[in-house]
Amino acid sequence: MKKGLLTFSACLLALIASNAQEVKFEEFDLDNGLHVILHQDNTAPVVSTSVMYDVGGKDGDRSRTGFAHFFEHLLFEGSENIGRGEFMKIIPANGGTFNANTMQDRTYYYEVFPSNKLELGLWLESERMLHPVIDQVGVDTQNEVVKEEKRQSLDNRPYGNLLNSIGENLFTLHPYNGSLIGEMEHLDAATLEEFMAFFNKYYVPNNAVLVIAGDIDVAKTKSLVKDYFGAVKKGPAVVRDFPMEEPITETIKATTYDKNIQTPAIIAAYRAPGMATKDARILDMISTYLSGGKSSVLYKKLVDNQKQALTVQAINLAQVDYNIFALFALPLGDVPLQTILSEMDEEIVNLQNELISERDYQKLQNQFENQFVNANASIAGIAESLASYYLLYGDVNLINKEIEIYRSITREDIQNVAKKYLNTNQRVEIEYLPKKDDQ
């Protein structure tokens, strides 16, 4: 009976996923190279205007790290037509919300307004792109903001430098080895001319995608986009030639110390194929199988049954050039770190030697179907997905079709990918330890 219910549930989710969530969109390019995606949804009187720039922590001079994240802040300073500090006052005063975020591969800005404020959203983003004020006052102001963010998010936060530790040890050549927030001495040493050069190189229309989603009239919106963004000058094409990493063939051991922790952690990190590959999706499934919730393999084993860990995770961090697949655990009491690592490795070996059960496989499929059904539940979420699929994956229609990739994954695929990428001689093992006064 239970098997029958599982099968019925899977069929129902597949039916909902295939019929209920198609996101329709329209694409076009301006003469200056700006790619534009429009999604019309008139069910609620809201509209999202967003721009994703093809620039992130991996870009720029390695003696000037952190510029992309710095610009996430700096481009809220103002423009020739928006006074200093007014950017963040105009939006809430008109019933809107806003935010921005930076990753290694991209920077994203967005506003959500009542739909009668569409033109305001377009004006704000065009001002950011066309003529922002980049001056010494703004640079000095945001330098202090970034320093405080670094203190709160990294330097004084337990396990705050964990991801940086993984990047530093997993990548020796590729700029993924650098901190997203950057080194403060790099920002302190940077000149105004260097900031201007970074803006002129990366924040150009042909290096960005504009997404407008929500309660819009498509024809009118196209006309407004041309009015507000058509005058932005096209920039030189951004050319990247990052060095690729040599495969890891022997286990790399490293140690990181953190003054903010009392409980050590163990990390095993692997270089994996970039986010647009099928193997990356299979590793998504593996990470969910291992630690996706309290009924997952590692949680039940190490936290519930053996009571060896406070928490345990398997993550597959999506990036364009290389994903990061990592196992992470905090021991309970005096359990040795290597004991926990051995217990996690045992489950990886099981994946490599045996097919997961049909029940676990169907559970995974149900989980990913459910994620697909619940994804893009808001206009803002749809806008970001459209931008990401275009800029990072190269296929906007994945917003409707990516679930088909997950459906095509077999138990044999899971076993083969575990064999191919998750071997002990292909990883970095990091002991993340409390820092003592003499260290």
TrEMBL record:
Tell me a GO biological process for this protein: proteolysis
Q: Which SUPFAM superfamilies match?
A: LuxS/MPP-like metallohydrolase (SSF63411)
- The UniProt record lists the Peptidase M16 N-terminal domain at 36-181
Domain Peptidase M16 C-terminal, which positions? Answer: 190-367
| Keywords for this protein | Hydrolase, Metalloprotease, Protease, Signal, Zinc
What are the TM regions of this chain, as residue ranges? none
Signal peptide position in this chain? Answer: 1-20
What family does the database annotate? Belongs to the peptidase M16 family.
Q: Which PANTHER family does this UniProt record tie to the protein?
A: NARDILYSIN, NON-CATALYTIC MEMBER OF PEPTIDASE SUBFAMILY M16B-RELATED
Know the name of this protein?
A: Insulinase family protein
**Originating organism:** Bizionia argentinensis JUB59
